[in-house]
Structure formats: C-alpha cells, structure tokens
User: Fold these one by one.
Assistant:
Number 1:
Amino acid sequence: MPEQEGKPRLAGYLDKQQPDLYATLSHYSQQLVEEADRQGLPRLTLELINYLSSQINGCAFCLDLHHRRALKLGETEQRLSLVAVYKEVPLFEAAEVVAMEIAEQITRMSSSRPSPELFERARQHYTDEQISVICMAAIGINAFNRLSILSEHPVRASKK
C-alpha cells in the first residue's frame, strides 16, 4: 500500500517511543567511538563512513548531523561535497577510500556482499581490529539512518 502524502509513517519518533532501546543504540555509538580511539582509527574516518552511508540511505537528518561533526573535526566542504564520488577524485587518502568502500558495501548488502578482496586491500591500511570497528561503524550508522528515516526526524536550519 503506497504511503499517503503528508501522513507520517509513525505516530511519533521511535527514539521517544522507545527511550530505553534508543539509549542502548546511543551507548553502542559511544562505545564505538571509544574503541576507534583505542585502536587508533581517526574520528574523521568514522564521520566519512557515517556521511557516506547516510547519503546512500537518503537520511537527511544524519547527513546534516555528520556534516557538522566532520567540519568540527577539520573536514573541508570540498571533500564532503565529493564523498558520493569518493572513488573518482584524488582528494581522499587510500585508507579513507577503503574504509568508505567497506561502509558502502555493508550499506548495500541487500544487493551484494563485501568481497574478500576488499578486506585484503583494507589490511594494507588497517589492523583486523580497526577493520572490525569500521564494519561496526557502518552497521551502527545504518541503524541510526533507519531510525531517523522512519521517525521523520526534521532537519532544522542552522544558526548562522
């Protein structure tokens, strides 16, 4: 049955309707950042993963959030504007490209699976522990994207 124009998907935000479950997801996200720090995985790499997956999933709320976070970490507008074509421009480091490729393949797993060759290329830049954090980051942002899309979280104008 097609969605009716103007009618919300749900009666409210999932995070407000299920605060305990949302708190668990938020805790996962915090633990992920802490583990990335322990493993020496740059936070900016996590933000690139979050940004790309949010683009693929069409999650406006998460795109806005991770755009702002990436800028605070020193990312440039130019690179963020080109994340969708990260393989076609020479602005991203090889390690960032492989991390985004892993995130993209995890995000698109319904149509294809990440290849063993991708993980072999990733091992040229990352330890197995770092690769597992990259995978967990992609899994986490996909959960947040789905929550925000279903909840229809609004994007508010920035204060500037």
Number 2:
Amino acid sequence: MEEPADRSGRPDADPDVDLSVPGRRPARPRVPWPVVAVVALGAMCGAAARYGASLLWPTATGGFPWTTFAVNVSGCALIGVFMVVITEVWTAHRLIRPFVGTGVLGGFTTFSTYAVDIERLVDAGRARTGMAYLGLTLLAALAAVWAAVWVTRRVVAWRQA
C-alpha cells in the first residue's frame, strides 16, 4: 500500500511543511524622486513666503489671526488661478503642477496654523471668535477659489476674443 501524498504530491513529506516554490516578490513601488524633489523645493519657498508674511504682519497675542486668514484666502485664490491656467490655457511641464500647486501654494497656505489659532482663541476664552474664524476662513477660502476660477476664465475668454 502506498503512503498518502501531501500537498506537494511527494510521499513521506511532512504535511505541515509547504514545499512549494514561492513566486517572485512583487516589485517595490517606484518613488517618483523628481516629483518629491520639486514638491519639497516648492514647499520651502511657500513656507518662507508665509513666514515673511507673519513677520510683516504679526498677530497680537489673543488677537484675531488676520495674517493666517489672509495667507489662506489669498493662497486659495492663487490655486484657483493656477489651476485654470495650467489646465485650460497652457500645457505645463509635468513638474510645474506639483511644484507650484502642491509645493509652493501648499507650503504657503497653512491650515495647520489655522487649527492652532482656533485652539488658542478658545483657550484664551474667545470661543465665539474662534468659531467665527473657523467658519469665516472656510467660507472665504472656498469663495476665493471659486471667484478666482470664474474671473480667470472670463479674462482668458476676453483675451482670446
């Protein structure tokens, strides 16, 4: 009588041992180093511009964070203009969008500081101001993107007419 074969089909093999040959490992995902580099470079530029704005227009302790508000709203407006220009007007190099959109404007706008500003206002006993800042920034940033896209499209159409 013949001994039963295990999963590998070999007689006398331990059934708890897998003798199959593993397939090739999946390739590691490639890191798009040029994109990573231009995003990092752009973020440094944007963050430096934001820091410059905070030096030129400092916010008083416990005061309304006008600088952060202005930076975020103007950055959102610039994103609106930029996206229309590179998607509807000009065929940009593949690294322009990550450099300017993600890097420069992502580093310039500062929604993390926005969150910290809200926390500071609430901790200072100015919860109403903090909540007003929260809502006002959100509405103004969205309105800035929308208005910038609308105006940029009108200007482009006018120049092409």
Number 3:
Amino acid sequence: MSMTRNKEGTMKSIPLNRQQIMEIIPHRDPMLLIDEVSELIPGERCSAKFYIDPCREIFQGHFPGEPVLPGVYTVEAAAQTADILLLSMERYSGKIPLFLGIDHVSFLQKILPGDTIELHAAILKERQEKGIATCAVEIYNRDVLAAKADVTLAMR
C-alpha cells in the first residue's frame, strides 16, 4: 500500500484499485464486494466504493421485477471496508478477518442494481491483546445515507 506525507507531515493515502485491495484482504469473486478505495489511512479511516452490477445472479430472485440489493450484501460490503481498514495496519497484516458481530444496523434507503455505494469505516474500539475491533460503517447511495452498522471483527 502506498502512503505519502502531505506538506503538513501527516499521512495521506493514495487510492487503491481492485488488485491492491486483494493484496490486503483475502476475499475473491464472487464475494469481493469492494471495487476501489478512495481513501485509506490505516488505523484511522477507510472510504470505499462498490458498484452494484445489475448482472449479479442474486437479482434473479431478490426480487423478480423489482430487484433490490439484499441487506446481507450491504452488511458484507460494510465488513469488507472495515477489513481493509484493519488489515492495512501492520499488526493485522496477513490475518483472516472473522465476523464476530454486528450492532446498530439500520437500512434507510433501497440500494438498486446499477447504483454505486460509498462506504466509510472508522474504528470505534479495539482490543489489541485479543485482536478484536469494532468499526462504525456508514453506507451512502447518491450522497444519501442508505445504511449504517457497527461491525465487530476478530483478526486471526
């Protein structure tokens, strides 16, 4: 991952493409739900994007004639954004992120085929000695908050 310092001396991230994302997290198609990272500051925040491809097979059954992205996909994309944030930190690099829990989930807007969602994750709390962290993730669709959740992960 490429990091640079800005003129103030603070860390500034460089966007990541899909290949660079796969160098950080272990997910692969069809379960890799992050297409690009627009901002990543390890241990601080991660902003990512996911294009909802209308050709995804899931839309044949959810729902015929009125397709909507299933909430479990939204939650998984949120978890993967948190995974990138955590696994980009040296202490968790190369680990497998395991989903421990999710709290305070709200689905506020439909996410439809053809949409591109933006996900923003930040660490809420961390237990380094156990390799467990909780991240707050907000999911936006067309600049409107579509969903939010607190995701807890174990780095193994």
Number 4:
Amino acid sequence: MNTLTAGTPAPAFTLLNQDGEPVSLSDFKGRKVLAYFYPKAMTPGCTVQACGLRDSKADLDAHNIVVLGISIDPVKRLPKFIERDNLNFTLLSDEDHAVAEQFGVWGEKKFMGKVYDGLHRLSFLIDENGTIEHVFNKFKTKDHHEVVMNYLQAAQ
C-alpha cells in the first residue's frame, strides 16, 4: 500500500453520491476538502466517526472545509446511513475501489487471523488548489473529528 503524502496533488476523481449524482473533486476548487475513507456504512466504528464529523460541521464550515465520506458501499446503501444518523455531508460510492487505490488506502488488512484486501481508514485534507495538505492516519474513530480540528487550529 503506497499512501499519498502531504504536498502531493490529489488524484482527480468523480464518484456517485448518495443520490446517484456525480460529484467531482474539482467541484470544490477554492475550498478545502476533507476526503475521509471509511470501510462500511452503518457499522459501529464508521457510525461513531461519521457522527463526530456531523457534530463538528459548524467548525469545519468556519474553516471552509467540505467533508466527503468515501466507502466501497453501493450507492443504494448511502441514503440509509445519512437518514439513520442525520449526516450533514456528502457520501460517495467507490464500489470498484479505484479512487481508494489512487489515494493508496486500498490494500491488505488483517482481522481475526484472516488476511484480505480492504479499505484502510485514512483521511486527506486537500487544499484549495487540489494538493494534499495533511494526511490523518493516527486516530480512533471516536476522536477523528477532534484530531482534524486540533490540526486546523494549530495550522492557523
């Protein structure tokens, strides 16, 4: 797994959102984007992580940040997650994990003695010009939003 690093241009991508509409990274030029990759909608860890971001929306808005949650879930699963947990940001479907591979977050995982390919839980802060400003790779699902906010406050 070769994860992208700060200073690298973010790969251009277009994925379908929870409404089946195409969303491109280039749609947000001039704004910062927090592209966060999560393994599966409506699972306990992913729910805690999403709700933390949901509850931080005003702070993220104040920093001109758009949140895009990216998983390999099919489009039809995403509206259920948004509705169930009142999520206030866009979810994108990367079913064939092509975008995850471009960002270097698709690869070998180990769980309960099994080895398989899957999506690694990482987040990328992409600046207004489409360059990766920071990679968040050390956090727990429950404090992901705090790690992001701490970084933003320190970077001011």
